[in-house]
Design brief:
The complex is a heterodimer of chains A (600) and B (359). By secondary structure, chain A is an alpha/beta fold. Helices cover 36% and strands 21% of the residues of chain A. In chain A, the strands form four sheets. In chain A, strands 7-8-9-3-10-11 form a six-stranded mixed β-sheet, sandwiched between helices. In chain A, strands 17-18-19-14-20-21 form a six-stranded mixed β-sheet, sandwiched between helices. The N and C termini of chain A lie far apart (55 Å). Chain B is mostly helical. Classes of the chains: A alpha/beta (600), B mainly alpha (359).
């Protein structure tokens, strides 16, 4: 008996105005065994979330379908734990006028309480006004005794690493939590209900790397203890391969493959053609096939066994430290929010002209707060901050900082102010008072830089998420700031979108722009950034190169950063062979193996 | 620097405040333990008592002063953020001063002794053309042409017009004289001052106690009280969702406004119209964010098992019992109300202070 059985499912989202939507799902067939952990991956817009909603029954029961057009929008059958969630009777409900069958959905309502679903954005699934009641809400609906609710809430918070908030749980508003904490609370609210099936739709996209693994590991432990069936949409191959029994590749509404992790992640031609994240060690082995022995590895351990030791050490050399002029200098910076929260407790940061620096730290460590101080949005509470030699404690200096320090917010939807792509880029320039004769060329060149020139007449709200992110960069870029701060530009994006954003940032850096990037993506740091500043609990604990950071295991452990595979393999080999070079990324490994050139 | 951190600090260390309807209060504030019903009864009682104390024919300035001090103390010790408390006082005192003067102008009761009379308005409006009027109108227009804003020009014009009217040559052509309202004077008499003082203290007490209520009450307390009052769950649930949406909209607004600042919205001085247009532009991302959220919130409600409105979840720690202290507080305020409104006890008279009687 399957826990989940999806047969030949088709689904088209209703379009109440304009042209008809294409099929979002085209004949999906998935069977999940009881107690199985199934991963689903695929590019954005592939239909992954739609499949999850169909399992819970939100599709079709939570969606308005035009009454006479059932067959036109949905076909197939979904069964969960032997209960029919949805089945379309294609021949039912003849049209009173034409006589042709319009179709009917059976049963009429079937959202199962045995299935929990954690959505992508935790902010939008909070329904209560205290942390305690957010987690207890489902249990209150189940009418469990108070003692059991309390015990389960406490356990669930412990499981997601928020046990220390228990004493404040009744008073803490979910909105007061940091991004990562919100995700964990959303997961805890379902874990507390101990459902038979848990559906997770990219639930950890906002978490720091170790936080992400902790949450998934907790879910896995729960699965082992209670026989939970888990379906998880995820982009991160490490998470999928570590915890999933099988992985499904979904693209353009179709399930293209369902394989065990080893088979899935070693089919590199298929994954790369679909724009799916792959393992660094697999890419190294695949591209250096002549020098790597045995099957393509997907784990660090397997790579350590098979990778050769005779490499060119010159491929792992850092450029000399920059002696260029200092653009930003923050010393012993403190910031306190109105609610009394100390977000920065003595942070330091030095950014020189032409730097490409990563600002790292776990969720709630103060990275975004620091960036907002550097952009002039927040006034420092204590300490000194000089941007281009000017003291930002002065309100007059802060008001002019957007001319020099561009800040791209994490969510592109928060920074679209007009209904035309051209006007959106021109908005900042008009605020700067740029004359019309210069404005057109500035807008055009910014749009060209992000490859949106042909979209300049369109409504930005109807662009894809990756395009909206690029538009946000263009809007800041057009203002020609000396320094560009980008806040988690790749969060929740698929591989192709990340590639496109990274390519843009690299081009800007090559043109001489100084970049400060806040990110949780350690591969991005190892691949592209030249300097790193790490913040822990509001205080800077490391300044240096990525190589220096990742070679210090104690520091990496203390700051909860995750070492990318390419580095982890180098580190493992260095334990046996101390003079082995520390390769940072795939390019350096390939150069070291004589298969390519290290990125400069 | 570059040393290994010894431990990972707990998240949100330093968290001292908890979100309330208006800003935040300290988690361990004594008012955080009060039931919302006792807070509402207190504010209603204070308001009713104050209205009685402010009676112009029988004012009780001492009673009003005691209530104002108690209300101020409740706000001060209620655990609200200190700088917010100070900034509210900063706004409140000029407002109360204006109220004091307004009372003296519009209620020229001579009482038994008049200390000061300043005529302000003779009872008719002159329709005239004058040099000062010309300066007043021309100044903002010229200023706008030169600097692109109006406010500075308006200020210069106003000062110049007043100076011309009082000191300089101000040729004037009277077109008409229209009688309107009655003459007004600022009259400071013994009776008038006492009533004005009582009014100011009374309104101050009402403002302080209202601020105390909204600055120390959490939305969750209201929802709990609704459930305790056996209001249908659908009502309290949707009130809760609505309050959550408001809070999300406020957060979105804050982020969007910051994004607008990052796009240089404050780089140049703008006219009032420009500022209004900038504010209107916030609506684009704000509405988009709210529409996207509403769809997802709907899905989340159903996924948590709230598939119909007939469901009655249990009241796990939502209902706060009305404790002995709450009952004592309610009784004190009811007794105070009975004493002042029913028995007409006047603290000023009890203290043996003789007040001038209004004429």
């Amino acid at each position: 008996m399957h826990a989940i059985d999806i047969r030949d499912l088709y689904w088209r989202y209703p379009a109440f105005i304009g042209a008809e939507n294409p099929w979002a799902l085209c004949g999906v067939n998935i069977q999940v065994e009881r107690g199985e952990f199934l991963g689903i991956t695929g590019p954005s817009g592939a239909g992954k979330t739609t499949i999850c909603k169909a399992i819970v029954g939100l599709i079709p029961h939570g969606t308005k379908i035009p009454l006479r057009m059932i067959n036109h929008h949905i076909k197939g059958r979904v069964t969960v734990l032997d209960h029919m969630v949805m089945e379309v009777e294609v021949e039912a409900n003849p049209d009173p006028q034409g006589g042709q069958p319009l179709g009917a959905i059976r049963p009429e309502s079937a959202i199962s309480s045995q299935v929990g679903m954690v959505f992508q954005d935790p902010e939008n699934q909070f329904l209560r006004m205290s942390l305690l009641h957010e987690v207890s809400f489902g249990l209150q609906i189940l009418k469990l005794p108070d003692e059991e609710i309390e015990a389960r809430v406490r356990d669930a918070l412990e499981m997601v690493g928020l046990g220390d908030l228990w004493s404040l749980a009744e008073y803490l508003h979910p909105a007061d939590l940091s991004g990562g904490q919100k995700q964990r609370v959303a997961i805890a609210s379902f874990l507390a209900m101990r459902p038979d099936i848990l559906i997770m739709d990219e639930p950890t996209s906002d978490l720091d790397p170790l936080g992400k693994r902790e949450v998934i590991a907790t879910t896995h432990k729960l699965k082992e203890m209670h026989g939970l069936t888990v379906v998880m949409v995820e982009q991160d191959p490490d998470v999928l391969a570590s915890f999933c029994d099988r992985i499904a590749l979904v693209d353009r509404g179709r399930v293209e493959a369902i394989l065990d992790p080893q088979s899935f992640y070693t089919d590199l031609p298929l994954l790369e053609s679909r724009g799916i994240y792959t393992f660094e060690v697999s890419r190294i082995a695949h591209r250096a096939r002549r020098r790597s022995e045995g099957p393509i590895p997907i784990s660090v351990e397997a790579a350590v066994q098979s990778f050769p030791r005779d490499v060119n050490p010159e491929a792992a050399v850092d450029p000399p430290p920059s002696e260029k002029e200092i653009l930003i200098e923050a010393r012993d910076l403190w910031y306190r929010y109105d609610d009394g929260t100390l977000a920065l407790k003595g942070a330091d940061l030095t950014l020189r002209k032409g730097d490409y620096m990563a600002l790292l730290g776990n969720n709630g460590s103060g990275k975004t707060t620091l960036a907002k101080v550097l952009n002039g949005i927040y006034r420092p509470w204590k300490g000194t901050v000089r941007v281009l030699g000017q003291d930002v404690t002065s309100a007059k200096v802060r008001s002019q900082l957007p001319r020099h320090v561009g800040y791209v917010f994490q969510n592109p939807d928060h920074q679209i102010f007009t209904r035309r792509v051209y006007d959106e880029v021109a908005y900042g320039l008009r605020n700067m008072g740029m004359p019309d004769e210069q404005l057109d060329s500035a807008v055009t060149s910014a749009l060209a830089a992000v490859d949106l020139l042909d979209r300049q007449e369109e409504d930005p709200l109807f662009l894809g998420k990756g395009q909206r992110q690029r538009l946000a960069v263009a809007s800041i870029l057009a203002m020609r700031p000396e320094i560009l701060i980008v806040d988690e530009p790749t969060t929740g994006q698929d591989f192709r979108m990340v590639e496109s954003i990274v390519k843009l940032l690299n081009e800007l850096h090559e043109q001489g722009r100084t970049i400060l990037m806040i990110t949780h993506n350690m591969s991005l740091v190892a691949d592209h950034c030249k300097q790193v500043t790490v913040i822990l609990d509001g205080k800077s604990v490391f300044v240096g190169t990525p190589r220096a950071l990742f070679s210090n295991q104690d520091l990496v452990d203390a700051t909860r950063l995750r070492v990318p595979q390419a580095i982890a393999v180098s580190c493992a080999i260095r334990k046996e062979q101390p003079d082995f070079p520390l390769f940072l990324n795939v390019d350096e490994w390939l150069a070291g193996l004589g298969q390519g050139r290290a990125s400069s | 620097m570059n040393a290994v951190a010894t431990s990972t600090a707990p998240p949100r260390e330093g968290k001292e405040y908890v979100r309330t309807f208006l800003f935040s209060m300290k988690i361990d504030s004594p008012l955080a333990r009060l039931h919302v019903v006792s807070k509402v009864v207190s504010i209603l009682s204070v308001s009713l008592i104050v209205v009685h104390l402010m009676n112009a024919n029988h004012p009780d300035p001492m009673g009003a002063a005691v209530l104002a001090i108690l209300s101020l103390a409740a706000l001060l010790f209620g655990g609200v953020i200190a700088w917010l408390f100070r900034s509210y006082l900063l706004v409140l005192f000029p407002m109360l001063g204006t109220l004091f003067v307004t009372w003296l102008i519009f209620n020229p009761d001579p009482g038994t002794r008049v200390y000061l009379t300043v005529p302000l308005y003779d009872g008719s409006v002159d329709i005239a053309l004058s040099l000062s009027l010309l300066v007043l109108v021309a100044s903002p227009i010229i200023y706008h042409r030169l600097r692109g804003t109006v406010f500075g020009g308006l200020l210069i014009g106003l000062v110049a017009a007043v100076l011309l009217g009082k000191l300089g040559p101000n040729p004037r052509l009277l077109l008409a004289e229209v009688p309107f309202f009655h003459p007004l004077s600022l009259v400071a008499s013994d009776a008038n001052l006492v009533v004005a003082l009582t009014k100011v203290l009374g309104y101050a007490a009402m403002v302080f106690v209202s601020l105390t209520l909204i600055m120390t009450t959490r939305d969750a307390e209201v929802i709990g009280a609704l459930r305790q009052a056996r209001v249908p769950y659908a009502v309290s649930f949707f009130t809760s969702i609505w309050l959550r949406s408001l809070s999300m909209a406020m957060l979105d607004y804050g982020t969007i406004r910051q994004a607008q600042v990052a796009r240089g919205v404050d780089l140049q001085r703008k006219s009032i119209l420009g500022k209004v247009l900038d504010l209107a532009r916030v609506s684009v991302p704000l509405i988009v964010a709210m529409i996207r959220r509403s769809t997802e919130v709907g899905d989340a409600v159903m996924a948590r098992g709230m598939v119909n409105l007939r469901i009655q979840p249990s009241t796990f720690r939502e209902i706060r019992p009305i404790r002995g202290f709450d009952i004592a507080l309610i009784l004190i305020f009811i007794l105070l109300g009975v004493a002042v409104l029913g028995l007409r006890i006047n603290l000023t008279e009890l203290l043996g202070l003789n007040l001038p009687v209004a004429s």
